[in-house]
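User: I'm writing a tutorial on reading structure tokens. Could you give me a worked example: one chain, its sequence, then its tokens, then a sentence or two explaining what the tokens reveal?
Assistant: Sure. Here is the example chain.
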Amino acid sequence: MRENSDACVVVPMYNEATAVGAVVAELRHSFDHVVCVDDGSTDDSARVATAAGATVLRHPINLGMGAALQTGFSYALRNGAPDWIVTFDADGQHRVTDAVHMVERARREAVDLVLGSRFLGGPSTTMPATRRAVLRGAVHFTRVTSGLRVSDAHNGLRVLSRRAVGELRITMSGMAHASEILDQVAARGLSWVEHPVTVDYTDYSRGKGQSNLNAINISLDLIGKRLRTGGVRRAGRSIAH
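And here are its predicted structure tokens:
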């Protein structure tokens, strides 16, 4: 039994056969439970992830990363209800050592969420300047609309407590889910901390990532939802670093 047997890693994937095998294999060195959600892939992602040791759930069609995460969350809560759920990208950008340290911190400080941040001293390697500018803009938008003083609004590496996963409900199926999660953290008063992580940008991961122009669509989606729901009522509880 591994040290992190109380944690489950959820990995959304869409046409990631090139990278996901190595990602799952490395995760399995540190985590007993790795769940990949195949979001309608047309390549061999599901076969590769299964061969590497992951449990694979499949969407028959592509629904978006938010929907894939919600499927993984629901599965984790129904099957063993781990104390901690880690979200981790399938393209090789994240480091398993960061995930392990974040789970350790979540246990030690008993917070609802540990949010990975590229801007807290862990330098992101080869981050394009345009991506940095877009991410900074997303941080400002999130601070204004949710009240959370985060430093990184769209980082896919997170650790959530079982309680937090039970409280959250992702309804925005696409990339706007990251901001939706933070909105719900604020609305429900969940406790959170940020943790410095390193993101490794490669030609492959840059090619797979969302375009900078898509940030406009994400903002419009979020604004529309806030107008329909009346916005965020209160901010979550940040725990001092």
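What the tokens reveal: Residues 211-225 have pLDDT under 50 and may be disordered. The longest strand covers residues 7-13.
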